[in-house]
Amino acid sequence: MTTTYGCGAGFLSEDIRCQDVFTPEDFSDEHKQIAGTTEQFVTNELQPVNDRLEAGDFELLVAKLRQSAELGLMMIDAPEEYGGMNLDKATSMVVTEKLAWAGNFGLTYMAHTGIGMLPLIYYGTRQQKERYLEKLVSAEYIGAYSLTEPDSGSDALGAKTTATLSEDGKHYILNGTKQFTTNTGFADLFTVFAKVDRKYFTAFLVERNYSGLSFGPEEKKMGLHGSSTRQVILDGVKVPVDNVLGEVGKGHKIAFNVLNIGRFKLGALCVGQEKYGLAEGARYANERKQFGVAISTFGAIKEKLADMTALTFASEAVVYRLAGMIDSRLALLDRDSDDYYADYQKGIEEYAAECALTKVFCTEAAARVIDEMLQVHGGYGYIAEYPIEQMYRDERVQRIYEGTNEINRLLIPTLLMRKLPSQQADDAGHFEDEELFGKERQLLRTMKRTYLALSGRAAQKFGDTIGGEQEVLLALADMAIQIFALESAVLRAGKASFQASAARQELYRAVIKICAFTGRSSFITGAEKCALFLQDEEIIAFLAAEAPLGPCDLLGAKRLLADAVSREEKYIF
Question: Structural domain of residue 161, as residue ranges?
Fold first, then answer.
């Protein structure tokens, strides 16, 4: 076995021990404590006022943000010298996941503590942090992030907002319009991207009270009614030169590196949504009677509950595996070093592909879980008094922001090719969990070999023009996503099974049977599509012969899992 586990893209070429991944079963007492605190806050303070928040009561929303700050929920990523705690990414994901049960509040919180605060934490000068960071950590100030423009969404570097140095050299004068900025209605500090001299893409810290700064009306959105989304209009806004964030012309580094964490955090929020939606669906299925019996006893409903439980299990495994990978890398850094945050960003950038695939997998998983659980509700799922209706509306945009899923799919294989230009999959020896999950382990090895072969052939065929072959890149992305997701689920189940009871082991075996069946099917579709695009008959023949899953009691696994979820009326892992 290779010794490079932990490197970005390493999952494609390495056979990994289950003991080497971080899973929810590894949560420390501190993780569990802060999870409990967050859950109580959601249950006691946020869910009872959801209707008011959904109606756009932003004064109440800001009050709840400050209340969450008092509980320490905004200290997680900030350095200690500015009122933070600088905790690990696993803690950050736990809190974000729990806040998914709070409707739109979760997005507002995520925007503030993520893209609102992280640019300053990672790139701010000491003077800038002293001026703003403690106010952000306490929620005295609320943060926002203005990158997108009316004519530049995915093409962020095509921004037209300009910044011109004043004659006295003391200010930059900003002109332009930003679109879809979350928290605009009440934010105090905006990270705004503009081009100095129409050329050098640069980030600026812009205060709400700066002259010339104004805002459009609230956007009339399909969902997320309880969050604020407005245009940010800059008309000759004078920004002190001391408020340049990072270096002039280096704004792309801030924009893209912060988006890596934003994508990762969104994955955690989706896991929380999946759990919430599953619980709502299971509870309703037990309550709803048709033909004199609960619909949870019907095979059609059982299959939905089982499949969505497995999808949630895989999503959760993906998020916390990545948290462990990033935390392991960041733990090697010297916090007292002047280069700490520069090295910190390099550590996160190492996993840019994994952040992108986490975003894609989890947003699409949340979409499917919520859609299926609305279907379980039947016509009542379309009625506003049921929580699943709001979840359905709110979920849709997640496949668009933080980079559309199409853009992220194009990024994934491109980044992976840079990391593994000509690697072979590593066929390691026997692992401790092979007895339980040997077939799935072997399937993963075949999937990895197939991906590397097709990726290599695509790179060889198209060379430097591969970026223009979007259909091929999309197919490769689907393959890589399924490898990481299935492997994360298998590793998690394998690790947890060692300490589990026989009954619990049976549930782990059941959930992996379902994950393997669906993951293999999606992978084969992507691989066959890619092979056809490349006109590679050898790979097509190889897939038909070498990617078997083998016989398994799939129906029994689904019924076992569905019955367990119905009894508990919640996500059971």
Answer: 143-245
| Residues 494 and 354 reside in one and the same domain | yes
167 a catalytic residue: no
Short-list 226, 263, 269, CA closest to 99? 269
CATH number of 155's domain: 2.40.110.10
Looking at the fold, whether 281 and 348 belong to one and the same domain comes out as: yes
- Evaluate if residue 370 carries a pLDDT over 90: yes
Beta-strand runs (E) in 321-452:
none
Query: Which residue among the candidates 402, 440, 487, 569 is catalytic per the annotation?
Result: 402
* Pair 95, 160: CB distance under 8 Å: no
* Separation of alpha carbons 444 and 526, rounded Å: 15
Share of the chain above pLDDT 90, in %: 88
pLDDT at 155: 77
Q: Same structural domain for residues 256 and 202?
A: no
SS3 215: strand
| pLDDT over threshold 50, residue 2 | no
Task: Work out whether strand 162-165 and strand 171-182 pair parallel, antiparallel, or are unpaired.
Answer: antiparallel
Which one-letter amino acid corresponds to residue 52?
A: R
- Amino acid at the residue 64: K
Q: What would you report as the CA-atom Rg of the chain, rounded to the nearest whole angstrom? A: 24
Tell whether 55 and 112 lie within a shared domain. yes
Quote the pLDDT of residue 5. 44
| CATH number, domain with residue 285 | 1.20.140.10
Q: Which of 137, 156, 175 is the last residue of a domain?
A: 137
Give yes or no for residue 6 having a pLDDT over 70: no
Q: Do 188 and 87 share a structural domain?
A: no
Helix (H, G, I), strand (E, B) or coil at 460: helix
Clarify whether residues 215 and 256 are in a common domain: no
Q: Which of residues 433 and 162 earns the better pLDDT score?
A: 162
Decide if 18 is inside a domain. no
User: What confidence tens digit (pLDDT) does each residue in 65-89 have?
Assistant: 999 999 999 999 999 999 999 999 9
Whether residues 100 and 162 share a domain: the answer is no
Q: Give the integer Cα–Cα distance in Å for 270 and 345.
A: 24
Residue 537 falls inside a structural domain: yes
pLDDT 10s digits, 274-293: 999 999 999 999 999 999 99
- Residue-level length of the chain: 573
Q: Is the pLDDT of residue 232 over 70?
A: yes
What total number of domains does the chain contain?
3
pTM above 0.90, yes or no: yes
Nearest-10 Cα torsion for 483, 484, 489, 492 = 130
**Centroid of chain to Cα 438:** 29
* Mean pLDDT computed over 106-121: 95
In a domain, 43, yes or no: yes
Whether the predicted pLDDT of 113 surpasses 50: yes
304 assigned to some structural domain: yes
Do 491 and 470 belong to one domain? yes
C-alpha distances in Å from residue 90, one per residue of 59, 124, 327:
31, 24, 8
